[in-house]
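Thanks for the sequence, V.! I ran Aldehyde oxidase GLOX-like right away. Repeating your input here for the record:
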Amino acid sequence: MKYSFAFFFFFFSFFFLLLCSATAPVAAEGGQWQLLQSSIGVSAMHMQLLHNDRVIIFDRTDFGPSNLSLGGGRCRDDPRDWNLKVDCTAHAAEYDVAANSVRPLMLLTDPWCSSGTLAPDGRLIQTGGANDGERGVRYLAACGEYDCDWEEDPSGLAAPRWYATNQVLPDGRAIVIGGRGQYNYEFIPKLNSEDAGTVDFPLLRETRDAEYNNLYPFVFLNLDGNLFIFANNKSILLDYKTNTVVRTYPAAPDGHPRNYPSTASAVLLPLQPSGTDAEVLICGGAPAGTYTKALKKVFVGSLTTCLRISINDPSPSWSVETMPTPRVMGDMLLLPSGEEVLIINGATAGSAGWDLGRDPVLSPVGYRHGGPAGSRFDVKSPTTIPRMYHSSAVLLRDGRVLVGGSNPHAFYNFTGVDFPTDLSLEAYSPEYLAPENSNLRPEIISVAGAPVALSYGKPFSLKFTVAAMSEKGITVTMLAPSFATHSLSMNQRLLILQSEAAAAVLADEGASLYEVNAVAPMSAFMAPPGYYIVFVVNGGVPSEGMWVHIQH
Ligand SMILES: *[C@@H]1O[C@H](CO)[C@@H](O)[C@H](O)[C@H]1NC(C)=O
Ligand SMILES: *[C@@H]1O[C@H](CO)[C@@H](O)[C@H](O)[C@H]1NC(C)=O
Ligand SMILES: *[C@@H]1O[C@H](CO)[C@@H](O)[C@H](O)[C@H]1NC(C)=O
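Predicted structure:
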């Protein structure tokens, strides 16, 4: 009797476990790494995914020769180049995700430490840099099959902008904020005479310290149309139209700087359809004084804290959480499940700047922002390749994270240095892509004429198949692809869309066909016009995304 009870119990538990594994995503593995290319010939200092599933990758023109030939007998003849006046190598490349191949692109002016935005029509608009590129505006179309290339306006900016931040605005223009020695902002494209000049911005003058520590400020478009801007250890809400500070937030509780070269990273956490709450999360960085000490070869341990604030709270305050490992120069990416922030790349000592980082951190960390306080972090599987200064990461439409770069040197140096120039590309696949989760993975039935056009506040429906429906139900998320450089993903934005319960359309033994009705974001304050990727998420497992286009 006892025996059979135990047997029954065992049998039942086993059966129950099986049931659970059919509906709950398996989180045990910590994700997987794959080397896509040992060398693409250009180091990924800047990356942007376009809506043709190509990633534009570039660093700077003044590095001397890269490892990618321009081809076709092409060379760049630039008497102002600091290192190579006639250069037959490429400093930018278009990476085709599906083909895993690279096409060299011809950059004329120097985009070193620059910024970027996608225009509403999907073109990359890329701003500033150094040397002959400090006022440059460069345009690149998502051109598909034909071989388009950069179009450049070397004097498109009103001020030189080296280490500036861009944010796309509800009207589709971009604001370009700061840069070394620039305590002002401006707009592009310049549609009228008001746009021609610069607007004074005292926050950047006030937060400039001996190490700078306020470059690449963190900028997020709030739901009221104002901009949350964090520089050094201070943050404000700015009405950029009238150049008024609407709110001043409390300083970072420990007073330490979070912007370049004390490089932390920051995200606007996923936005709910209600459109009132918005939270900013800033993780890692380096204590004040780290940069100066690193110049003297003293490498201070990085910050271990994340700071989180509700920016529309009547009395906002920073809450402080502790990561499993310290990190400087990490990249933060919103995963399409809408449930997790990935913190990836970087080091555990030193700062940004040439050869100033030490002790790479090889394991990404996940942060479940909706989880119980105290147990939000988990450590993921490690890579083998250090991603130090000048590395980057972007999310791909298939849910993988593309990781590249690392070049803490003023040249391409492959020997005789601690962290050689890295030209490889890796993909990190989060747990949701593990084979154990394939039965939970929805597949959107592709729509003829994609990218699908969405209108603000209008319903739309998606058909998808999935083998096992999670009891957590279906959510629909919408992600703006970001411009990644220097640990900052500009314009990164993830919306949880209002949606109804998915309904079965048709069922057979294999996968079932469902339909979900969702509503496009209510306004351009919520989602500025442009291309986004929509995901159907089932129990934390996102489908491959689908490109959509939203505009006024
Ligand atoms: C890049 O080219 C240099 C010079 O030809 C060579 O020494 C180096 O190994 C190459 N590096 C990679 C990663 O391809
Ligand atoms: C913020 O940083 C500035 C500049 O380094 C410093 O003087 C100030 O004390 C810091 N603020 C706080 C609250 O610690
Ligand atoms: C890096 O490469 C440049 C150009 O080839 C060379 O002049 C420099 O000495 C190298 N630096 C180191 C540390 O090897």
